[in-house]
């Protein structure tokens, strides 16, 4: 008999909770990754850097596993078909994996657990992706927090050594079932190498120690760019939190936001398609397609908005301060449904994560939990003065900024602000 360890958004060997328990099960472990056809179908571009990133991450797992005469078994099919095949091929005692809190992933896992159970195969899942999952940090009356600050306070109170345990296991020659390297090429998967440069991010002491001073200035390399690594689990969240505790509490707060939005999506899965606050469904969005197109291309005539959108289009990254500005601009200045912006970000962001993207978009639109009141509207020109005073960031992405060719604003700042407040007010009274 063997046990399966199913890699998903935890593409690392060290400090991986589910893998730790699989390796300590008393059986040899069969490492598995499924290039799930139903998930790959969501990527519309052949050169999507995220598929490339996953591919490279598995390649690097294989390099480590080589010393143990194995590699990750890769199946290019659906999860259900993959297990049908495995159940025929191996005598499996149990499947081990880490929890994934997205609604569609939960459905998939329930299906596989049921399939396994009908063959008397256990299905074990562990918390690995977050420090505290939905339901673990509750108010004294047993209900979930919907406001970040008290949530973060309780999160800090609950944080103990157990939550930060390092699950790294020492491997040996008997750890794994031997598997021939069968990693398909990107072309075989229907994709190709991406031209984007997403140099593998690391826990950079210099950046993190100065995070509180630099994080708001998009012209500075002041944030870690670890988003993609946290999304696909090439780095452990426990390791990041430990590092934050020793180097910068302000950075820790960002990691707590990640847990916060993960628990919101888990406990209120309706947010995936709907406003967290019902009333906001009544907003009469203008949804002008031409204006949306100009926003997407970074041609709104607002330099900071344009720079941000062009940075996103060209690199798959956008600085957090600028994400807040472009999201506010779309939902308030242009009165375009936050779901349009959310979907656009989902297509382009390398660090795209359903819970964080959805939570932050709803926050920007005012309809999310703990969102700013609707009448607080980012002024893109003031934001530019405050956070890119000398225009270094803007000039990097908007080359025509200083020339007469630079577009006039597509909406007047003052008029757009008044229109937004009136539209929101109408919906909310
Ligand atoms: P750092 O500033 O170094 O922070 C470290 C990590 O903390 C991040 O990688 C991320 O995992 C987490 N984090 C930081 N800020 C937030 C936050 N506000 N909410 C949740 N987690 C946070 N973040 C995503 O990971 N995926 C998304 O799809 C995403 N979409 C966003 C959409 C909008 C409209 C906005 C305003 C923000 C969004 N964010 C998203 C949050 C934030 O902008 C990014 O996490 C951050 O900019 C990533 O850069 P970094 O890796 O250098 O982060």
UniProtKB/TrEMBL annotation:
GO terms for biological process: nucleobase-containing compound metabolic process; response to light stimulus; response to stress. Signal peptide: none annotated. SUPFAM superfamilies: Cryptochrome/photolyase FAD-binding domain, Cryptochrome/photolyase, N-terminal domain. Keywords: Chromophore, FAD, Flavoprotein, Lyase. Gene3D superfamilies: 1.25.40.80, DNA Cyclobutane Dipyrimidine Photolyase, subunit A, domain 3 (1.10.579.10), HUPs (3.40.50.620). It comes from the Bacteria. GO terms for molecular function: deoxyribodipyrimidine photo-lyase activity; DNA binding; FAD binding. Residues 1-131 form the Photolyase/cryptochrome alpha/beta domain. Binds 1 FAD per subunit. The record marks 285, 338, 361 as: Electron transfer via tryptophanyl radical. This is Deoxyribodipyrimidine photo-lyase. Belongs to the DNA photolyase family. It holds the Pfam family FAD_binding_7. The keyword Flavoprotein applies. Its cofactor is FAD; (6R)-5,10-methylene-5,6,7,8-tetrahydrofolate. FAD binds at residues 211, 251, 254-261, 351-353.
């Amino acid at each position: 008999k063997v046990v399966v360890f199913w890699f998903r958004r935890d593409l690392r060997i060290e400090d991986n909770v589910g893998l730790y328990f699989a390796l300590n099960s008393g059986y040899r472990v069969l490492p598995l990754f499924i290039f799930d056809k139903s998930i790959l179908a969501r990527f519309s571009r052949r050169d999507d850097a995220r598929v490339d990133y996953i591919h490279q991450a598995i390649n690097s797992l294989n390099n480590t596993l080589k010393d143990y005469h194995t590699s990750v078994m890769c199946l290019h099919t659906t999860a259900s078909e993959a297990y049908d095949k495995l159940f025929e091929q191996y005598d499996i005692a149990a499947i081990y994996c880490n929890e994934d809190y997205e609604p569609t992933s939960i459905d998939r896992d329930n299906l596989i657990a049921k399939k396994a159970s009908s063959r008397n195969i256990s299905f074990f899942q562990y918390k690995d992706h977050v420090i505290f999952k939905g339901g673990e940090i509750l108010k004294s009356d047993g209900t979930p927090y919907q406001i970040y600050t008290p949530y973060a306070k309780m999160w800090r109170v609950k944080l103990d050594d157990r939550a930060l345990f390092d699950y790294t296991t020492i491997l040996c020659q008997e750890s794994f079932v031997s598997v021939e390297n069968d990693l398909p090429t990107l072309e075989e998967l229907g994709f190709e190498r991406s031209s984007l440069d997403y140099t593998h991010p690391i826990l950079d002491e210099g950046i993190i120690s100065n995070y509180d001073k630099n994080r708001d200035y998009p012209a500075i390399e002041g944030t870690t760019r670890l988003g993609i690594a946290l999304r696909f689990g090439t780095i452990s969240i426990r390791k990041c939190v430990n590092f934050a505790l020793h180097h910068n509490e302000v950075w820790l707060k960002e990691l707590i936001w990640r847990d916060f939005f993960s628990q919101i999506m888990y406990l209120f899965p309706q947010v995936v398609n709907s406003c967290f606050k019902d009333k906001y469904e009544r907003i009469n969005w203008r949804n002008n397609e031409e204006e949306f197109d100009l926003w997407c291309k970074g041609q709104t005539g607002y330099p900071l908005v344009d720079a941000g959108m062009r940075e996103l289009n060209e690199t798959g990254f956008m600085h957090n301060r600028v994400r807040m500005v472009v999201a506010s601009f779309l939902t308030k200045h242009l009165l375009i449904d936050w779901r349009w912006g959310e979907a656009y970000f989902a297509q382009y962001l390398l660090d795209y994560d359903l819970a964080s993207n959805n939570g932050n978009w709803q926050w920007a639109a005012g309809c999310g939990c703990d969102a700013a009141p609707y009448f607080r509207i980012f002024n893109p020109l003031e934001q530019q003065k405050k956070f890119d005073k000398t225009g270094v960031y803007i000039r990097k992405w908007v080359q025509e900024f200083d020339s007469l060719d630079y577009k006039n604003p597509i909406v007047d700042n003052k008029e757009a602000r008044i229109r937004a407040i009136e539209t929101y007010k109408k919906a909310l009274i």
